[in-house]
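Researcher: Structure for this, please.
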Amino acid sequence: MATGSLTAVPRGRWTPGPDGRWDPRRSDRVFGTVMVALWVAWLVLTLVTQTRLVTPDRLEADLAAGRVVTWQVVQLDTSDEGSSWSRGVDFAVTVPSIDASVDDAFSAPGSPAIAYWTDGWFAPVRVLDPSGLALGPHEVAQWMRTAGVPTADRLEDPTIVFDRRQNWVVSAAAPLLLMFLGSVLIGPAPTRGTRWFWFWQAWVTFGLGVLAYAVWEQLRPAPRPGTLGAPARMGGWRGLFVAILVSAIVGALVSALAGSTHWLWLVRP
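Model: Predicted structure, token format:
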């Protein structure tokens, strides 16, 4: 070998032994594939379970189809507390939705709204979007009574109101986040960004930063740092800027699209 020449080293998570039995990139591909599969599972479960903001037209269609099981006056959570890849629509059940309490609830401070539950598997919890709502709460309550839909406090089995299947989403997100953080913090050095760069990507909306890591560092890694063809890695400050910028842009675009269309098949940030 000529003096001063560079030697490319394997790009896998583990260097193969002298007998060469281990494919140097197979472990990366398996690890990355599992991460992508968990991210897809998280996205599908979020799509299926997330509470939706809907229009009166959607409520009218659900009532006509006999899909509405119960309804309730709720308080929307408009705070930005907590962190999640997709918070969606959070609310708290307040008072029983009997005639006297509907008007009382909507005249009280806060962000009252009317939520209803359907008997389907897809987006079973739906909330009438209070912004631009032409109907008053009393008219909506009258719709429910006319259709024979009971309030949540009158259900024989009230657990339907609290079974929002959120644990399904956590079951997919938790191992994915643990795999990501474990690989970034204690695994071999990433190839396209530093550990700090990828650490900030954990908080990007919809888990897009974790997905990017799975693709660019596990499925399609660059040459290892210090080897022939290795690119300059992006640092921590750039990672923080990218995470904030991507989250802001994606969150704003998807929120605007969801607010203007009220598509049930659109996940909210």
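Researcher: Any notable elements?
Model: The longest helix spans residues 236-261. Residues 52-163 form one domain.
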